Amino acid sequence: MIRRSTLPLLLAGVFLAIPFLASAQIEEYSYDRIEADYTVLSDGSIRVEERITVSYEGTFHALWRGISLGPVAVTNIEVVDGDTGESFLSADTFLDRLVPESWDKFAYIVDDGYLKIEWYYKTADTTKHWVVRYTLHGAVAFAEDSDSFSWSPFSRYAVPVASTSVRIFLPESAQISVAVDSAASSTVSDIDDRSVRIDIAR
């Protein structure tokens, strides 16, 4: 009789514990918004600033940004905590994200036309703002009658981005035309002879 009466209680305890443990281990993140500024300099290079808003559920220690460069070169890479203004230190190689000594640092590699930036920190159950800056070389195509810049702000994101705002600034006046190749809804606004803004919502 003791075995028959205690067995259902043990089973009930096990099944009750499973959902609790599963909910405690949920780790998800999502990109709420990305704002990217592309400032074309007089030498044809482009200074990029990406302001990335990420919502976290659970504890996280690293985030990475991948960019398909193709033949384009990249320099002057920076990572900044957008909430504190703290600039992360650059490391020579990728680090162990779980080691506290790695936090507030970043590392990157360029391999076969692909840039991967990874930065390390500790955050949990919050919304964070990150700033990634870099300079592109060779992204502007020059021609006799016009110059062009073609780029994808969605390159290599692992999860969908809820909304994106892109602004492009030119070093001098020009006649600007814009073509957006996206299945998402997009709006072109604030266009003049030196700048343009494109909003994209998924």
Gist of the model:
This protein is mainly β.
Key phrases:
202 residues, mainly beta, 7-stranded mixed β-sheet, 4-stranded mixed β-sheet, 11% helix, globular, disordered N terminus
Write the layout of secondary structure elements.
Elements (H helix, E strand, L loop, with lengths): L1 H23 L3 E13 L5 E12 L1 E10 L4 E9 L7 E2 L14 E7 L2 E11 L2 E11 L2 E3 L4 E3 L11 E9 L15 E5 L5 E7 L1
Parallel strand pairs: 1-11, 5-6
Antiparallel strand pairs: 1-2, 2-8, 3-7, 4-8, 6-7, 9-10, 11-13, 12-13
Please tell me about this protein's structure.
By secondary structure, this protein is mostly beta strands. The chain has one helix and 13 strands, in the order αβββββββββββββ. It has one helix spanning 2-24; strands spanning 28-40, 46-57, 59-68, 73-81, 89-90, 105-111, 114-124, 127-137, 140-142, 147-149, 161-169, 185-189, 195-201. A hairpin with a 5-residue loop joins strand 1 (28-40) and strand 2 (46-57). It is globular, with a radius of gyration of 23 Å. It starts with a helix and ends with a strand.
The secondary structure category is mainly beta
Strand content: over 45%
SSE topology string: HEEEEEEEEEEEEE
Radius of gyration: 23 Å
- Residues in helices, as a percent range: 10-25%
Global outline: globular
Low-confidence stretches: 1-24
**How can the largest sheet be summarized?**
7 strands, mixed
The number of helical elements comes to 1
Distance between the termini: 61 Å
Spatial strand arrangement across the major sheet: 4-8-2-1-11-13-12
Number of strands: 13
Give the integer mean of the pLDDT values. Answer: 84
